[in-house]
Amino acid sequence: MTLWNQLLWGSVYLSVCLILEISVLVLCSAVLNRMSAGFAKPFRPWQIGIMLVVAIFIILGSHTAQVWIWSAAFVLVGAIGDWNTSVYFSLATYTTLGYGDVVLGPALRIFAAFAAVTGLFGFGISTAFLVSAMGRLFSLNGETHRARN
To answer: What's the whole-model pTM score?
Structure first.
């Protein structure tokens, strides 16, 4: 793959993953809003815990899907021949762990670096979402609690 092809296809897969991440977070927000509307206010600690667990599992599903997207990309471009190694390499790269026991040739190194960038963006956006969502829940909970007293 030429440099320009690596940049183009890396950007395409990165964009697909970020669109997926944003879509999942919008869905997660709707699920949390629906759940919080069904709970009595102020929230009990177990209700906040359930909402946090639901949000984490939804986000975990998004990250897992993105690892599989990158795994498919590596298999499709012929970078890695088998799915087991491809998923392993994608997960190690996406999380920026990078063990280094599976290394791509020079013609695909830049393409693979986009998987790491995808993980950085994904984890950053997910973390910001969780902090914001939980802060909002705690804030709403405190306002409701103060209004009742």
So the answer is: 0.89
